[in-house]
Amino acid sequence: MLLLLLTATALLAPVPRLTPTALTVPPAAPDPAVPAVGRAWPVGTHPPILRGWDPPTGPYGPGHRGVDLSAPAGTPVRAVAAGRVSFAGHVAGKGVVSVDLTDTGDPPLRVTYEPVRATVKEGDEVEAGEPVGTVQPTGSHCTTTCVHWGLRKGDTYLDPLSLLPPWLLRRGPSRLLPVLGVPLPS
Questions:
Q1: Does domain 37-166 match CATH 2.70.70.10?
Q2: pLDDT greater than 50 at residue 82
């Protein structure tokens, strides 16, 4: 009887509903292998994160090899850091732009944005914040339009949010604190 009661309780308990709403939690800790060279979000100033990075369990294992950022179709997609465009074209019907980041080792860190209609071409040098394309209305794996932002070093996938310095990840207004020992203006 007790087993039946416990089973019924477990089956009838409310289940939290997962929805594609924005995540508000930044990565737990930046990846030490990733220098915080990012100076801009790929879209917007602090876009809603629809799905975070989930490291793959192996080369072909499950996981999410990037971060999905909510963005309407036509939104400009910007380079997060300075680099050279290593690819701008279509892969499996999706527009893709990849940028090898400057001064990030050998092999360099490579960021990828998709689905994106490229406004740059292979070999172009880009600065942080410079547009590399626009969000395409189709081709995304999200339930709404989004940009999948990925990061790799060689064959290893990394969390792209680790590129951003902590001050760029924080939400909320800036606050000025009083400066001790300085008289108030009259």
A1: yes
A2: yes
